[in-house]
Amino acid sequence: MTTQYQDLIEKAYYSFNSRDIDTVLTMLHPDVHWANGWEGGYVIGHDKVRDYWTRQWKELDPNVDPVRIREREDGRIEVEVHQIVKDRQGTVLFDGMVRHIYSIERGLIKNMEIEKP
Fold first, then answer.
1. Residue 3: predicted pLDDT
2. Domains of the chain (ranges plus CATH)?
3. CA distance 68 to 6
4. In the structure, what pLDDT confidence band is assigned to residue 116 with cuts at 50, 70 and 90?
5. Whole-number mean pLDDT of the chain?
6. Is the C-alpha dihedral spanning 38, 41, 46, 47 positive or negative?
7. From residue 65, how far is each of 13, 51, 74 by CA, in Å?
8. Which of 33, 57, 51 minimizes the C-alpha distance to 43?
9. Which of 8, 65, 79, 80 is most buried, judging by how many CB atoms fall within 10 Å of its CB?
10. Cα–Cα distances in Å, from 67 out to 9, 34, 97?
11. Of 76, 64, 29, nearest to 48 (Cα)?
12. Which residues lie closer than 8 Å to 104 by C-beta, 6 or more apart?
């Protein structure tokens, strides 16, 4: 995998965990197709991603840390992630591993899917 993609992915996770939506959006394609792991389905485009995260963070406190990043044979980027999700009172709702799959187009994240490991 190229260092460019690894840096992009790591910066995106850091910015997400810091709740810095504006920085994450600079790394996403304008027509990004993003998995809505909270409500199901997908959101498309910067405005929908911003709305999704804003709503989610009012209810939940998710933290996602990449453990392993690798390029798949089909060119997509697979990120094994340790995810901890708490409610707003601090109760842990989920603590485990998930797999995020990214497609990159022209140096920007174009698609993100969630798989169970």
1. 57
2. 3-115 (3.10.450.50)
3. 10
4. confident
5. 95
6. negative
7. 7, 22, 24
8. 33
9. 79
10. 12, 20, 9
11. 29
12. 5, 8, 77, 110
Answer yes or no: pTM beyond 0.90. yes
Reported as a single tens digit per residue, the pLDDT across 55-89 is 999 999 999 999 999 999 999 999 999 999 999 99
Joined together, the tokens standing for residue 6 give 């690894």
- The string of DSSP letters for 34-62 reads EE-TTTSSEEESHHHHHHHHHHHHHHEEE
Instruction: Read off the pLDDT of residues 32-55 as tens digits, 9 standing for 90 and up.
Output: 999 999 999 999 999 999 999 999
Cα–Cα nearest to 1, from 81, 112, 75: 75
The tokens for 114 are 């969630």
User: Which residues have C-beta within 8 Å of that of residue 98, sequence separation ≥ 6?
Assistant: 37, 64, 80, 81, 83, 114, 115, 116, 117
